[in-house]
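Lecture notes, continued. The same structure-token format from the folding unit now serves as the input rather than the output. Read the line below as a description of shape only.
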């Protein structure tokens, strides 16, 4: 009997020890598993942080490179301005329109660009321009504008064309419209804007007034935008002014001749691809609601689709209304 009890007791003790050992092993395995899992998580987090740090380092490196380039460009410009006195700067800018002296002796070219001159040559104007190496017209997207944004009135757009008006000398539908800088300087707006070191040079080049180099601050830092501003606010820039306002097209702005000349002036309807049109941002600069739109360089005769005597405003409105979904208010008649 005592042997049986002792054997049973031994088995119980042995079983308990096995359970304890099994429990300890399980606990040890769990601890090992938790440790390994935590180590994996730590490693994943570490790799993610390394990747993030690398990305931030690359961004910082790119920013530093960009800053260095901009700084170097500014230093070159500053150094150039310090080394270049006023007379030297004027001399450099004057070379921009060195073609002017050559062009003034070409009677055929002058008869094209002078709005009051009679054009009696049988040649195609486009061929004449090509023969004399005149550049292509500038698209608005080629100007790399900063602040000026294209915001055309959709009511005057149809099938990719913008319908506009211009008031000018009679019979210009046979000769085209040209900006002064395109015709007499033989430069597109894109080419002209790239020749300026800074926008302060634009005013001097257009008006031969050194105050633009010594005292008058430019409105914009971008030469292309400064050219736009001068055309819209004044005149004689590298753009051609047009409008969607019939009263504005009738009376014109800044270009009013004597009363006898006015009687012969005509209002031209222009149909021009939208990529060559940008709206002015100095609207209503004069007493009229200008609704001004600017076209770089030139407007060829195939984009001049109709003309009216300046007094025939109602007939002009009816013509536009047949093409566009517009009201009298849209063209400032009411």
């Amino acid at each position: 009997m005592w042997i049986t009890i002792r054997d049973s007791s031994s088995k119980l003790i042995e079983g308990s020890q096995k359970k304890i050992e099994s429990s300890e092993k399980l606990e040890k395995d769990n601890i090992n598993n938790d440790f390994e899992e935590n180590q994996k998580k730590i490693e994943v987090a570490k790799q993610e942080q390394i990747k993030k740090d690398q990305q931030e380092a690359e961004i910082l490196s790119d920013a530093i490179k960009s800053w260095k380039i901009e700084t170097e460009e500014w230093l070159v410009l500053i150094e150039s301005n310090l080394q270049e006195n006023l007379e030297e700067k004027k001399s450099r800018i004057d070379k921009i329109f060195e073609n002017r002296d050559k062009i003034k002796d070409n009677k055929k070219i002058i008869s094209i660009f002078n709005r009051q001159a009679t054009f009696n040559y049988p040649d195609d104007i486009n061929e004449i321009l090509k023969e004399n190496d005149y550049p292509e017209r500038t698209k608005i997207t080629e100007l790399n504008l900063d602040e000026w944004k294209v915001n055309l009135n959709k009511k005057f757009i149809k099938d990719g064309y913008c319908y506009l008006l211009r008031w000018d000398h009679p019979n210009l539908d046979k000769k085209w419209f040209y900006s002064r800088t395109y015709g007499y300087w033989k430069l597109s707006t894109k080419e002209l804007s790239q020749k300026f070191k800074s926008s302060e040079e634009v005013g001097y080049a257009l008006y031969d007034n050194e105050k633009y180099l010594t005292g008058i601050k430019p409105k914009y830092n971008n030469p292309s935008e400064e050219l736009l501003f001068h055309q819209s606010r004044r005149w004689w820039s590298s753009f051609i002014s047009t409008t969607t306002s019939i009263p504005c097209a009738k009376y014109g702005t800044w270009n009013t001749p004597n009363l006898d000349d006015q009687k012969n002036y005509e209002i031209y309807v222009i149909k021009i691809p939208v990529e060559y049109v940008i709206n002015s941002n100095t609207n209503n600069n004069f007493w009229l609601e200008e609704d001004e739109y600017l076209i770089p360089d030139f407007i060829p005769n195939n984009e001049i689709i109709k003309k009216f005597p300046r007094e025939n405003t109602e007939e002009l409105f009816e013509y536009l209304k047949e093409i566009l979904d517009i009201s009298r208010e849209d063209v400032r008649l009411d």
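Point for the exam: The two ends are 127 Å apart (CA to CA).
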